[in-house]
Amino acid sequence: MNNKLITIIIATYNASNTIKNCLESITFQKTEACELLIIDGDSSDDTVNIVKSYGELVDCFISEPDFGIYDAWNKGIKESNGDWIMFLGADDLLLPNAINDYLNILKYNSKVNEVDYICAKNEYVDKNGKLLKILGKDPSWNEMRKMNVAAHVASLHNKSRLFNEIGLYDLNFKICADYELLLRKGESLKSLFIPNHIARMSAGGMSFSTKAIVEIYRIRALHNSVSYLSNIVLFIINWLKYMSFFIRKKSNLNSIITRLKGEEFILDENIPFTYLARFLFVRGVSLIYGMIRLRTFKRVFVHPSSTIKCPSMINVGKNFSVAQDCYLDALSTGGFNCGYNVSLGYQTHIELSGSLKKIGKSIIIGNNVGLGTHGHYGSGLGGLEIGDDTIIGNYVSFHPENHIFKNTEIVIRHQGVYGEGIKVGKNCWIGAKVTFLDGSDIGDGCIVAAGAVVIGIFPDNCILGGTPAKILKNRS
């Protein structure tokens, strides 16, 4: 077979679900200057038939047992006739014009034969094709000695200056032998980086795993590319980056939170990992403290900075959460009772009894209720009830108790108190700095505008605002 400029080598094993898309991405780009080799690991699915259906597109096809992807690639190198060798996985795709971009470099760059390695950028996508990140940087020695910054998929290897000079892939490394090969060349590695997007690769492979992180650590140690202490630090950094990616994946943290909350939850991908790591650490500590402080085996979270009084009168469902610097005093006749997925925002103040002369009634909160920061929730003699799925803003206060003041001959504080109670329906939205006074009762689906003072009885699905609050309009 005549010499070629580029040899494309694809390793396959039971790849019937992906190999067709891979080959389709090559079909309309391949020229006479290229050859395509497919080295199969004796697949038991339909991979062989799919490959054979492409006929002359495939210049060489071998199907026999092997010892993994690098063993397959080594076989391909020995069979290759190209001056430059490109490697693809069966689930990788060449982007349009990728081959042409490389051919232009090889034909018109006068110094290209002095280069060992040519690489570009890769698009890293999830199973639905959503772009997760762009991979690939200029592989300078200062970068490469620490970690593989080059995007290996669809990069070009100078056969004579790499494989003929320093050997084939080391099969002792199952995941990162491509990094080991380049590090074997050391400081003498001459590379060329082009800013084009060349290939698309899917998330989920072994190249992004804890095993890969361990292999990279071993490879740096093998070639003494960094000091012992630096190698350890880099290992920790790589592990943290991996955990950051793991946390963001829907199949991981999102599914965990979804199971915990009992409803779908999708984490914003723009949240920094350090924030998430600190959040998870605090949640872990709060979980341990909460179970101990509330004397329960339920999944509850109480920040250690918060104050809990009379825990025997606290009855909560799973995922009850108390943020920093909250105050919860449950002394009352009926206690503090809430359903699942109830959260208390930062510096929330809940005090069921304002006096020891006559303790308050109770607070009852439904499921999936969020209490904003800096709120005040009293029970008093009337009690407080908040329905399911209600959202309460910051600085909201509830006062289900009133002073008696009719007798002008007696100071007010000596005339006692009475309470009718406060009720908030289900699926309500209470804006910031709203004040609820004793005797208030709003129906389901109500919205209360920020700053309103609520007193009185209001029907379902109305929008309230003002001081005192009035019905502004109906939602229905």
Give an overview in words.
The strands form five sheets. Strands 1, 2, 3, 4, 5, 6, 7, 8 and 9 form a nine-stranded mixed beta sheet that branches. A nine-stranded mixed beta sheet has the order 10-13-16-19-22-27-30-33-34. Helix 7 (177-185) packs parallel to helix 8 (210-223) and helix 8 packs antiparallel against helix 9 (228-248). Strand 6 (117-125) and strand 7 form a beta hairpin. It is an alpha/beta fold and 476 residues long. It folds into two domains: 4-206, Spore Coat Polysaccharide Biosynthesis Protein SpsA, Chain A (Alpha-Beta Complex), CATH 3.90.550; 273-474, Hexapeptide repeat proteins (UDP N-Acetylglucosamine Acyltransferase, domain 1, 3 Solenoid), CATH 2.160.10. Helix content is 26%, strand content 27%. The model has no long low-confidence stretch (mean pLDDT 90). It starts with a strand and ends with a strand.
